[in-house]
Design a protein that fits this description.
The complex is a heterodimer of chains A (114) and B (117).
Chain A (H helix, E strand, L loop, with lengths): L4 E3 L2 E4 L5 E6 L6 E8 L3 E9 L2 E5 L6 E5 L5 E5 L8 E8 L9 E2 L3 E5 L1
Parallel strand pairs in A: 2-11
Antiparallel strand pairs in A: 1-3, 3-8, 4-5, 4-9, 5-6, 7-8, 9-10, 9-11
Chain B lengths: L2 E3 L4 E5 L4 E3 L2 E3 L5 E8 L6 E7 L7 E2 L2 E6 L4 E6 L8 E9 L9 E2 L3 E6 L1
Parallel strand pairs in B: 2-12
Antiparallel strand pairs in B: 1-4, 3-9, 5-6, 5-10, 7-8, 8-9, 10-11, 10-12
Chain lengths: 114, 117
């Protein structure tokens, strides 16, 4: 069974631009979560989607948004990029979103904002 | 608030020896899961092992075992017979069970493990 895939793997943007990251979960998984990882803040939860609905959201500004499609694929969007948005963005999927199943992560998207 | 603490920023271990990575957690909830992930320099987070708060036996997955001491709120990872490929960052994480918290992993700061040949 294929794992979680994320595209693109690497991205360079300039301040003020916007970016869209994509995540395809493991087949059959309905819950997708997004995390931001930086050296200073560590791993921080962005949001979780389950059956196309945002179920949980972390403490990030409204510039960060996401959505989930009927096939469970998810996208996250960051508008008006800031230098501090440079990070590794990790997507994770789990089977049923009960909180009792492991989250399996993708390889991540490394975003550099210049 | 929930919190994960990993007090060892860096660890060294000789190849083929066992190593224990420490993790303590803080929560007032009774139902939760504890996870360990490995992150090599490539960045991908690799799931290693899971322990539920109501599981009576310590979880084991191959060379990985989780030493779960609920009263002490600790969930240490034990890696037996270390291999060079075990060199990576290791994260302990917790997730509360319940609809309002589902899908939200809380991570510790991580421990960098280096295996010496």
């Amino acid at each position: 069974k294929a794992g979680v895939t994320q595209t693109p793997r690497y991205l360079i943007k300039t301040r003020g631009q916007q970016v869209t990251l994509s995540c395809s979960p493991i087949s059959g998984h309905r819950s997708v979560s997004w995390y931001q990882q930086t050296p200073g803040q560590g791993l921080q939860f962005l949001f979780e989607y389950f059956s196309e609905t945002q179920r949980n959201k972390g403490n990030f500004p409204g510039r960060f948004s996401g959505r989930q499609f009927s096939n469970s694929r998810s996208e996250m969007n960051v508008s008006t990029l800031e230098l501090g948005d440079s990070a590794l963005y990790l997507c994770a999927s789990s089977l049923d979103g009960t909180g009792r199943a492991p989250e399996y992560f993708g390889p991540g998207t490394r975003l550099l904002v210049l | 608030a929930q919190k994960i603490t990993q007090t060892q920023p860096g660890m060294f271990v000789q190849e083929k020896e066992a190593v224990t990575l420490d993790c303590t957690y803080d929560t007032s909830d009774q139902s939760y899961g504890l996870f360990w992930y490995k992150q090599p320099s490539s960045g991908e987070m690799i799931f290693l092992i899971y322990q539920g708060s109501y599981d009576e036996q310590n979880a084991t997955e191959g060379r990985y075992s989780l030493n779960f001491q609920k009263a002490r709120k600790s969930a240490n990872l034990v890696i037996s017979a270390s291999q060079l490929g075990d060199s990576a960052m290791y994260f302990c994480a917790m997730r509360l069970h319940g609809s309002s918290n589902t899908g939200k992993l809380i991570f510790g700061q991580g421990t960098t493990l280096q295996v010496k040949p």
